[in-house]
Every structure is written in structure tokens, then in C-alpha cells.
Amino acid sequence: MDRSLSGRLPGRPLAHPAQRAPGPRPATGEVEPGEGIPVTMPDDQPETPYLELLARGAPAEAYERPVLRARAEGASAARLAALERAKLLALRVRGELEGRRRREAELSALFETAHDLAGLRDLDAVLQAIVQRARSLLGTEVAYLTLNDPQAGDTYMRVTDGSVSARFQQLRLGMGEGLGGLVAQTARPYVTESYFDDERFQHTRTIDSGVKDEGLAAILGVPLMLGSGVIGVLFAADRRPRVFEREQVALLGSFAAHAAVAIDTANLLAETRSALAELEAANEIIRDRSEVIERASEVHDRLTELVLRGGGVHDVAAAVAEVLSGTVEFTEAHTAPAAAVDRSRAGGHAVRHGEDWIAAVSAGGELLGALVLRGHPRLDPVDQRTLERAAMVTSLLLLARRSADEAEQRVRGELLDDLLDAPDREPRLLRERAARLRADLDAPHVVLDAGIDPRGAASGGAPGPAAGPPPEETDEPDRTGRAHRAEGADEAAGRQRLWAAASHLAATRHGLAAARDGGTVLLLPLADGEGADSLARRTACQLGTAVRAAVTVGASAPVSAPAARPGEVASAYAEARRCLEALRVLGRGGQGAAAEDFGFLGLLLGGARDGAGDAARVEGFIARTIGAVVDYDARRGTDLVRTLDAYFASGMSPARTKDELHVHVNTVAQRLERVGRLLGPDWQSPSRALEVQLALRLHRLASAIAR
After folding, report:
1. H helices within 348-475, ranges in order?
2. How many CB atoms lie within 10 A of CB 410?
């Protein structure tokens, strides 16, 4: 039999309080109040004592006293009947007043609950208040609320009031299990006077254990409806059997509706707060992205400005470092971390290397270097893109600079070619062309001929064929051809590197450079106090370091004004070439020298651009070879020069020399010791002795001509 609240409640009918007065029921055969009892009262007013009882709110048993007192006083039957009718009417009024007070209390509780919902701040507090008020107004020992768990497919205990069992407070009810599970499944209220004796519910060991541990007997459950769906159940329960009136069921249903509204409102507030939090997070991300984009835009503008005003690679690095708040450096390809640079080139993106970020600077498959951002282990993707954009701009600047350098090198080479090949060029035009290259052809210059030393190049080249059995005759021509081709390719690459290094050196020294006759020729200005020989040695060192090979450099005597005397440039070039070949013949490859460094050979190597030049070379040779001795004689009035003449004329014999000079042999020894201190300890070596003798004869000849 269906004992849900859609029919009669078990045990007794659900009568409205207005239809049944509290207290003892009238005897059988008596007429119920309202069933034909006249409302008019007799003249002796028997209702007066009952009005006094109603006025002071007396309990129901007090309404029997006026009838008992009248009987004790021997009142007539009519009087007693009137008192009985007045009593029943008074009890009926009393029941109506109690019902009104009860409904007033229920409405007040509902209003308070609605007020709490209007100012909802804490869902737990509102649900706890609903459960407490339901327990208080229904007069039960326990009240509790369960909520559905859609993911688990069951209901769980959310709020309890009056519960003393921890097991009961942690119960979970499957759909259809127990009274609560049935309410949640059917969306209808259910009530039982004694839970364990009611067979309508699906009893489980877990639920029964929890209910028994709490000691509950009578249970009323109403669904929490949200739209057409059930979200939970509100319960009122007693630890003894009892009957719940229909009004109590309706009241608990009202509280359940309020609880559903509270839960729905809390869910909406939670969703609103979550949406606001997400919006705030999104706004924060947008602000961050806006800042990053503004920073990237700033970098783009600054890089564009740098490119337009001719900034360099280090200017780009400084600009990016300022924007990224770090240290950015441009490194050459051979100094950058090879593995990180290879990963950056392969992926086309900046890569992390330890605590740094590296972006390869490349163009057309050629690695030009790398940009290194230091001290930034965590880099925003947009900042990473900024570093990559800076690397791209750097590669463009390097290519532009290379193109400009190559164009300038060609112009410098063309000007030097004109000086060498067209001596009749107009000096004014030569000066104008040189001025555009920041070169001053009216200042003294030196022509230098540079070439990579073949032995030095071979030592750094590829190893020869491995030792082993001789190759087949049919393979020999092919191997020889491959070796010649490889050697030719190496020589061409070396000449190209030498020309590039010489062009760079000429640009930095405000000179000229050109590739010529399988080597490189330079026209460099001569600094104050500097000689052609020292310039040749310094140039050989600089070019050798640049190309990483031994470079031999021959230098000419200074050309006073190449623009005014373009014809002398070609003669100076011939002199520089002779010096270069002399260095190679003498086994001095990888060095730099001018004609004056070759002793008496310099007289043969030096060109005859004019007579004054020849005389100057002779005087220079004498000064370099025995000038210290000549000067000493001039200052001290000694005869060291005459002693040297006699010494060499006597076959370098001190004994014969003393006879020639008519002095003691010790005097000869002292003079020769003095000569050794002036000329150096090796002055008697064969090569030095030959130069000293030649210088003595040239000095004697020059002195005779001067006289």
C-alpha cells in the first residue's frame, strides 16, 4: 500500500488544526462543535468563564472546571448543557488561536530564512539556520539535509542539527536506498513512524547502521527541488515513533524550497565569483600581453631607428638589453656555444643554454655569429621573439655592412689599380676619389706586397697521403689531379682571405688595397717617426693573425706624395715585389722587410726612382752598418774607423794590424772591443763582416767625393 504523503499518513488522518480541536473528544452521541450548535447564548451568559480562560491563555484542562463547579453547586440540566456548549466553542476558538500562533511562528521563521537568503554570505551558515529552524518548529530531536552528488550518483550528508553519531553524519545514500534515497529518486515527500518496521524502503546495512547508531525512529523527508530536478533532501526525525501532521510536512517543504533557493543562489554566486576571477586573470594576462606587445613594439621601433641611422651590431645588442632588462652580447661564430647555436639555426628560434638564451645570427645558410642574452633563465615567449627579431636585424646589418665593405674594397682596389697602371691620371681626380675613401694621397705612403708563405700554408693544409703500398698505376693520374685541384682550391681560398684581411686593414688605416699578380698589394700611409721596415713587419704580423697563416710582406721606400707622383707608385710596387721575393729566397717567409733591411742587398733591391733616392740609400746603408762607429769617432776624436780598415786589410789579424797602425797590440784589442760594443757581438761573422767592409769602402768613397 502506498503510504506516501499523497494519501493518508500512517496511523492517523492528516486533519487541519481548524477542523479538530485539541483536548478530549466529546462523548458518543454528542454533537461536534459547528454541527448544529446555535451560536446565540442564553441570558445568564454561560460563556463568561470561558472568555476569561481564553483571555489568559489557560491550558485545555482548565476548561472542564466551570462545568464541574456548576455540577457541584447543583446547577440545572439546562445550565450544565449551556456550559458544555460554551466549553466546546471556547476549545474550538482556543484551537484556532493556537493554529494562528503556530502559523505566525512558521511564517516568521520563513521570513527570517528569506531575510537570511537576501543577505547570503555563507551558504553553510544559511543551511545550518534552515535545519535548526525546521527542527525547532517541528519539535523534532534531529534535523538534517543531504545533497545529490551527480558524479557519484548518490546523496551525501551536508548539514545536521541534533545529531550525535559520527557514522550517521558521514552517510552516503544511493539513489532509491533508504527513505532519503527514495525521496531523491521519486521527488516526493515520504514519512515513517518507525523506520526499521517500514518495508517500503530499501534497507542497506550501511544506512541501517548509521540510523541505528543515531537512534532514529520516525523520519520525515521532503525533496529540495530546483526547477524539475531534485538536488537534495531535507529531513526531520525523532528518536521515538511519532506522526507528522500534513501542516508539518508543508512547513518542512517550505524550508526545503528555501534551502534549494539558498543552494542555487550560492551556486550562482560561486559561478559569478569564478567568472569574475577568470575575467580578472584574463585581464591580468591581457595587461601582461599588452605590456609585452608594447615592449616588442618599442624594440621594433628602436631597431628600425637604429637601422635607418646606420647603427651597428653592438647598438642593437644594447637596445635589446635595455628592453629585456638583461645583458645582450654579440659573439662571433667561432666563440659562441656550438651546440646551442646549431639548435637555434635548425629550429629558427632562440634556445636556452644554461642560464642564458642564444639566438643564431645567420643568413643564407652562413653562420655570422650569435646574440647571447645572459641572466634570463625564464623568458616570455614574446620576449623570446624579440630576441629572435633582434638576431634577424643583426644579420641584416652584418650583410649590409659586408656589402658596403665589399663595395668600398672594390673602389679602393680600383683606385690603387689606376695608380699602378695609369700613371698619367689627373692628380686632382685622384685626390677627390681618395678623399671619398678618407685617404690622403698627399701624405707619405709605402707600397707593400703581401703573400701567404707557401710553406706556412702547406703546414696548415690537409695532410698528404698516408704511407702505404704504392697506388695502382691507373689511379695515379686521378689522384694527382685531385691533389692539384685541392691545392689550387686551398691557394685560391688563401688569396681570398688575404685580400679580405688586407682590405680591412687598408680601410682602418685609411689606405688602399688590391689583389694583384697572385698576391695583395697595399698602399698605406706612413706615420710620423715610422719607417718602411717597421710598417712591413707590423703589417705581416697583422695579416698573419687575420688569415691564421704565415704572411710575407715586402715594402718599398716611402713615396712622398702618390697623388702628385703617380708614376712612382708603380716603381715602388716593383721594389716591394723584389723585397718579397728576396725574403722568400733568403728563407725569411712570414716576415716583413724593406730594402734597407737587406744590408748591401738593399742597394740592389731598391729601385732607382731618382738619383737623390740612390744616394740616400747609400747613406742609409752606411749609417745602419757602421754609423755608430763613425759617430763615436766624430764625438771622441778616436780612430776606430781607421782601425777597422787596417784590421780587415790585415786579414783580421791584430798583430799585423798593430804594425799597420804603429801601435801596441793591446791598443788594437781595446779598439776592437769598443767596436764590438758599438756594432754588436756578431760584427765579425762572415755576413756582418762583409757588410761592414762594404760600408767602410762606401764611407771612404763618399768622404773622398765630399772633399
Report:
1. 381-421, 427-436, 454-459
2. 12
CB of 102 within 8 A of CB of 18? no
Q: State the DSSP code for 473.
A: T
Task: Kindly list the distances between the CA atom of residue 627 and the CA atoms of 75, 495, 630, 686, in Å, as whole numbers in the listed order.
Answer: 175, 41, 5, 19
How much of the chain exceeds pLDDT 90, in percent?
Answer: 11
| Contact by Cβ (8 Å): 14, 244 | no
Q: What is the chain's mean pLDDT, rounded?
A: 78
Give the pLDDT of residue 117: 61
With 0.85 as the threshold, say if the pTM is over it. Answer: no
Whose CA is closest to 517, among 503, 504, 499, 501? 499
Q: Which pLDDT value is given to residue 706?
A: 56
pLDDT at residue 39, rounded to an integer: 41
**CA-closest candidate to residue 539, choices 562, 521, 560, 514:** 521
User: Which residues lie below 8 Å from residue 417, measured CB to CB, with a gap of 6+?
Assistant: 514, 516
Return the SS3 of 397.
Answer: helix
| Number of residues in the chain | 707
Q: How far apart, in Å, are the Cα atoms of 518 and each of 450, 491, 492, 515? A: 10, 10, 9, 7
Q: What 3-state DSSP class applies to 266?
A: helix
What kind and span of H or E run contains 146?
Answer: strand 142-149
Alpha-carbon span 695 to 683, nearest angstrom: 12
| Grid cell locating 125 | 551558515
Q: How confident is the model at residue 601 (pLDDT cuts 50, 70, 90)?
A: low
Q: Give dist(CA 128, CA 560) in Å, integer.
A: 109
Q: How far is CA 154 from CA 173, 174, 296, 684, in A?
A: 6, 4, 54, 117
Q: What is the pLDDT of residues 471-526, one digit of tens each?
A: 444 455 555 556 556 666 777 788 888 888 888 888 888 889 888 887 899 999 98
Q: Tell me which residue of 342, 306, 332 sits closest to 321, measured CA to CA.
A: 306
Give the 3-state secondary structure percentages of the chain, helix then strand then coil, rounded to 5: 60, 15, 30
Helical (H) or strand (E) element with 610:
none
From residue 424, alpha-carbon distances to 15, 415, 441, 463 in Å are 137, 13, 15, 49
Distances (CA, A) of 306 to 103, 319, 510: 85, 9, 26
Beta-bridge mates of residue 630: none
Q: Which residue type occupies 526? A: L
Residue 461 has pLDDT above 60, yes or no: no
Overall average pLDDT of the 597-603 stretch: 61
Contacts (Cβ under 8 Å, ≥6 apart) of 191: 3, 5, 9, 10, 218, 219, 220, 221, 244, 249
How far apart are alpha carbons 172 and 678 in whole angstroms?
A: 116
